[in-house]
Design goal:
The complex is a heterodimer. By secondary structure, chain A is mostly helical. In chain A, about 35% of the residues lie in helices and about 5% in strands. Chain A has a two-stranded antiparallel ribbon with strand order 1-2. Chain A starts with a helix and ends in a 21-residue tail after the last helix. Chain B is of the alpha/beta class. Chain B folds into 5 domains: about 35 residues; about 40 residues, no CATH class; about 220 residues, Rossmann fold (3-Layer(aba) Sandwich), CATH 3.40.50.740; about 220 residues, Dimethylsulfoxide Reductase, domain 2; about 130 residues, Beta Barrel (Barwin-like endoglucanases), CATH 2.40.40.20. In chain B, helix 10 crosses helix 14 and helix 17 crosses helix 19. Chain B is globular, with a radius of gyration of 29 Å. The model of chain B has no long low-confidence stretch (mean pLDDT about 95). At the A-B interface, helix 2 of A face helix 1 and helix 2 of B.
Chain lengths: ~230, ~750
Amino acid sequence: MSSNEKHQTDGRTGDAHASSPSDPRSGPYILLFFILGLALSMVVGWSIFPKLLYSQKSQPIDFNHKLHLEQVDNGCQSCHFFREDGSFSGSPRLAQCTDCHAELLGESENEKVFVEQYVATDREVPWLVYSRQPDCVFFSHSAHVFGAKMDCETCHGPIGNSESLKPYEENRITGLSRDIWGRNISGFKQNTWDRMKMDDCAECHAQHDTLHDSSVQTGRDACFVCHK
Amino acid sequence: MKLSRRCFLAFSIGGAAGTALSPLPWKLTDDLSIWSQNWPWTPVPPDGEYVYMDTTCTLCPGHCGIRVRKVDERAVKIEGQESSGMNPGGICLLGLSGLQLLYGPTRIQAPLKRVGERGENRWQTISWKEAIEEVAGRLNELRSKGQPQAAAALASEDTGTVPQLMKRLLTAVGSPNFYRMPSMEDSQAAVLDLTQGDEGFIGLDVERADFVLSFGSALLEGYGASPRMMQAVNRLRASGGKLAQIDSRLSNTAAKSDIWLAPKPGTEADVALSIAHVLIARNRYDHAFIAQWAEGFEAFAAMVAEKYAPEKIADQIGLAAEQIINTANAFADAEHPLAVCGKGKGQLPGSLKEALAVNALNALAGNINRPGGPQAMTGYEYIQWPGLLPDAVADAGLQTPRLDQAGDVVYPNPGYKVHRMIEAVGAGSVELQALLVAESNPCFSLPGADKVQAAFSKIPFVVSFSSFMDETAMQSDLILPNHIYLERYEDVPVKAGTTGHRVGLCRPVVAPLHNTQHVGDSIIQIAHAMKGPVAAAFPWTDYAACLKETLSDAWETMLEKGHWEVPETTYAAGSEGFKTASGKFVLMNETIGAIYLADAPLPAGDESQYPLQLVAYDTIRLSSHYVGSSPFMLKTLADTTLKGQAGFVELNPETAAQLNLKEGVSATITTPAGSADVRVHLDEGIRPGIVAMARGLGHTAYDGFLAGKGVNVNRLIAPVEDPASGLDAAWGSWAKLERG
């Protein structure tokens, strides 16, 4: 730190490193550096970190939901349906699309890519699923659609109105979509479909606590209800 | 400006405060916890549509109906078929873990040709065309040299289209040397022939019995179709029936029995005849049946009266006379008693004398071909192929004697005597130039396994159709890997103690994972590649065509129901159907008398040098058949059977004390056939003087999950030829155990 010679000749014992807090030489700089550190880390935490965390991926085909919704009779469930055993089919498989798209129906570039690269080669389209939850989560669509009579948009948003698929912002650490945590890094949301973390599910479950009370200890849902 | 250390500290603290006030640490923690779930070794069930497919398991002779659940194209679970008439909803540990065999690392992925020496495990992948042509070439060479009989084949069954195709190939080539791996079927066939003048197999009507007297049969550990047998025996006991188990070791079956007798191993025939003595002496046999349907009763009664009184024989067999008498009474008390034999899972023929004696008990109970008794089942005759006219070369070859026909026995029978073939080949007294092996692993599963391997070294050309790199495949020159059962169509006639004629349909549940080929196709292609009269004997384009044509009308039924009940081959209830000259069940005649007089099959060895008796036992937790145990199965073994790589032997504490052996110590077991390092487990439930070892461990091939674990008891036990039948009646060996 500071040169010792001068202090030693003063005869002070021990404390060569003790420096007075009101040392005029570095005082204001301490505060400056503190603020600097604070500001920089806030910038990193709030802006740079989210940018670095997510990579932008695009879907293999830019699918137009609005167009297709106009063509089908059953709304979302025309393609995202329940099977006979009650399980949910998720994203449609090639076999469903080829019911209509065995050959080119229209003139769009997207459809051309689809028919040439996937239908002709009998390859499943590797869709990136925005709502994919981590492996620890057990979710039953039946319980929510048939049981709670919820509609798709409450959790998934008005995707049916979209004419193209938004980019899949993949979290580099988890591989999940940014839609799970929510676009807002601090976790604030405006619509019910902005986030899909456990707390968001809990918001609804807490309102229906006479139904969700399997835990003896808390009077709410027990862990195993969703984490098998 | 002077930069001080405090400035740096202030910067850091500011940074830390700012970071804490930003979402970074919280988001990062959340993300890292999710990241840890993505680690590749954490198993995650696949998502998708469930599809259920019914097929037949072929991993053991039981041939249970199974139901496989698939997610998209991946098989994820095997369960017993609820709708199966034989094993409703039941499945055993091996069947359950079939998926580990399907997707496991030991699968042979393409046709292989050996490079280097046998056993070095160095292979070259070749094309199917090359493989087929090489086999065809070799067989043609034998024919051109006038030695077609020097070709042989070994399979695990002899009914069904696949084994019959192999046999047909040999016949067309000109060799009588088709063999089936030994099993209890061989002695059952002999018993049926001698007592009822019939051919076929014996079904056991356990479902309608109320007392089962089992001579060492592992009824609750894998005998027959294990789920069926376990369900039947449990139901029997739950409804008040009784199980009596004769076992020198407290096996699971013995532990669940109501009466447990532990005589000296190898004396079971005497136990049976002694029980017969009591039944006759006390008039507790079915007089009506004996009077009307039995031949030779007086001679039989005279024999047992003279030699098998319990008091007389008790010491010799190691039981108390009381035990024999009580068991006989319990047997006679029952309304539908059933005596059963076939040690362990019934993988070896055993002593013919024992089989006859046990069956005699059934005759005395009057239950032959009656509800609750043994049912004579005719063989499967549904394969009606065009006749085969061998050409001159083949004809000459077919006239030569089979490789297993030497020896002088009381009852010469057509049963397969693989041990004789191995011995003759090993001794060099016969020449075997080519051997085809399918669905069997003789280098591991046959008693005298080391000798089998040595015999193989005398066979210049060995072809294995195995799906797995097993011990026999390691000793082969060419491997033409078969599809595993979940990948192929096949007709599966069921014989293991069943009382119905069912041909199960084994159907593919997944597309073949590797470049394998159905063994049926391989055989047909080999025949076609041989051209000439051999090719002409195989008028089908491929195996699928052969199968459909063979089953013809039954094919649709098979596809729909998963099996086919063969009509008009079940007997009417009652005793009609004895095909002997007298039309009666033969209890005693000259041949049977001579069999009862013949020496008991005893292992070789000097008792003074080898004071203990090694017995091999079967457990449901291990497969000792063609297929190696799955990793799941090994996980279920207790630490007192297998710990790490060390296999255990069981020993009575009394015997252990005499040998100065304590629980868990290492020891060396030596028999005339070989020696091995083992560890010792003390168990009071085993007869003093006996050492027991599980069958199914000690693989040297396969993969890290199985290889090197435990000891192969077949290396320590040599084949023991039954003087009565010539079949292999090995149940164990004389042994000594020393501190290792």
